[in-house]
Automatic annotation (TrEMBL):
Pathway linked to the protein: Amino-acid biosynthesis; L-valine biosynthesis; L-valine from pyruvate: step 4/4; Amino-acid biosynthesis; L-leucine biosynthesis; L-leucine from 3-methyl-2-oxobutanoate: step 4/4; Amino-acid biosynthesis; L-isoleucine biosynthesis; L-isoleucine from 2-oxobutanoate: step 4/4
Keyword set includes Transcription regulation: no
Family statement: Belongs to the class-IV pyridoxal-phosphate-dependent aminotransferase family.
UniProt xrefs under InterPro entries: Aminotrans_IV, Aminotrans_IV_CS, Aminotransferase-like, B_amino_transII, BCAT-like_C, BCAT-like_N, BCAT_family
GO annotation, biological process: isoleucine biosynthetic process; L-leucine biosynthetic process; L-valine biosynthetic process
UniProt name for this protein: Branched-chain-amino-acid aminotransferase
The protein's Enzyme Commission number: 2.6.1.42
Residues with the N6-(pyridoxal phosphate)lysine modification: 203
Cofactor(s) listed in the protein's UniProt record: pyridoxal 5'-phosphate
Known catalytic reactions: L-isoleucine + 2-oxoglutarate = (S)-3-methyl-2-oxopentanoate + L-glutamate; L-valine + 2-oxoglutarate = 3-methyl-2-oxobutanoate + L-glutamate; L-leucine + 2-oxoglutarate = 4-methyl-2-oxopentanoate + L-glutamate
UniProt xrefs under Gene3D superfamilies: 3.30.470.10, D-amino Acid Aminotransferase, subunit A, domain 2
Any GO molecular function: L-leucine-2-oxoglutarate transaminase activity
Enzyme class name: transferase
Length: 364
């Protein structure tokens, strides 16, 4: 059954927080700690398609212990932000790219695709209901988390015949509260994030579950993130647990690992390919080996390294560490190319620079 066009009802939260309570949260929201007064829900079955779209008071979901997602992890998600511009209007950055990626993730996880009008409509409906929760100023944003999971109560192993889609929203502070800081990255040699033919290119919770142990190892070595190599040869740079990588070369070109089938296709990664060209850099997608990173950092061919993703936008990488060694890029401080690319992207998102590529969609 194909889904009907997007439609949603609204049930206003009778226990919504007061303006005072909300302002206290928005003054220092952090990341992922606080949630708005509403959430979006819809369900899919083979008979109905996507149906029963509704904005309802934010609150716990009741989950039967035999709900399929709890056992077999058939789940996918997205992450995007709403930004307030100087005139008070609210905008999304390339939301149709998130919609398309969620459809690709759904395909890989044998979940039903959510039509683009449902994806955009659900976000629009939630942002409208919780407009007062979109924080303004100082690189704050409203982080939106659409997700979909197998909600059939059944322990058999097959694609779920009942699926739930939801969107929740969380006010987010500036990722780098005290100014942009360069971080150290731990090289995981024992674990992979994803394998050939696996789910690395899908945005699914299971990939994150697999990255938590190496992530903890990274933290134990004083590193903020972990870098993964390909699982076949343990040679080619893939990405971090939740961010893609870029290398700035001494000839001014910027290089990002080509999509190998096990790398997540980041929308920030893709946007930086365009912004890099706009700023006059040659942009290259190709395989980058771990030896090239080590060697390039040592001989100066690689002058800057940065990671990118929606949450932190662009994070400068000061060094790569491994058991018994370290490769420092440049002088270990955020480099000029990294900083310029970050500013160019953030300026478009917050409406301070012209939206040359039609990336912004107004939602309020
Ligand atoms: C979401 C994600 C990214 C970054 O994607 P953006 O669309 O830029 O936010 C990179 N790697 C992984 C594994 C991710 O899940």
């Amino acid at each position: 059954m194909t889904s009907t066009p997007f439609a949603a009802t609204l049930t206003t939260n009778p226990a919504a927080r007061t303006a005072e309570q909300r302002d206290a949260i928005l003054a220092d929201p952090g990341f992922g700690n606080h949630f708005t007064d509403h959430m979006f829900l819809a369900e899919w079955t083979p008979d109905t398609g996507w149906a029963d779209g509704r904005v309802v008071p934010y609150g716990p979901l009741q989950i039967d212990p035999a709900t399929a997602v709890l056992h077999y992890a058939q789940e996918i998600f997205e992450g995007l932000k709403a930004y307030v511009h100087a005139d008070g209007s609210v905008w999304l950055f390339r939301p149709e790219a998130n919609a398309a990626r969620m459809q690709r993730s759904a395909q890989r996880l044998a979940l039903p695709e959510l039509p683009t009008d449902w994806f955009l409509g659900s976000i629009q409906a939630l942002v409208e209901a919780d407009r007062a929760w979109v924080p303004a100023g100082g690189e704050k944003s409203l982080y939106l988390r659409p997700f979909m999971f197998a909600s059939e109560v059944f322990l058999g192993v097959r694609p779920s015949q009942h699926v739930t889609y939801s969107v929740i929203a969380s006010p987010a502070g500036a990722y780098f509260a005290g100014g942009v800081q360069a971080v150290s990255i731990w090289l995981s040699t024992e674990y992979s994030r994803a394998g050939a033919g696996g789910t690395g290119a899908a945005k699914c919770g299971g990939n994150y579950a697999a990255s938590l142990l190496p992530q903890r190892e990274a933290a134990e070595h004083g590193c903020a993130q972990v870098a993964f190599l390909d699982s076949t040869e343990q040679k080619w740079i893939e990405e971090l647990g939740g961010m893609n990588l870029y290398f700035v070369q001494s000839d001014g070109s910027i290089v990002t690992p080509s999509l190998s089938g096990s790398i997540l296709e980041g929308i920030t990664r893709d946007s930086i390919m365009q912004i890099g060209r706009d700023l006059g850099h040659e942009v290259v997608e190709r395989r980058v080996s771990i030896d090239e990173w080590r060697q390039g950092a040592a001989d100066g061919t690689i002058t800057e390294v940065f990671a990118c993703g929606t949450a932190a936008v662009v994070t400068p990488v000061a060094s790569l560490k491994w058991e018994g060694g370290e490769a420092v890029s440049g002088d270990g401080q955020p480099g000029k190319v990294t900083t310029d690319i970050r500013s160019a992207l953030v300026d478009v998102q917050y409406g301070r620079a012209e939206d040359r590529h039609g990336w912004l969609t107004r939602v309020s």
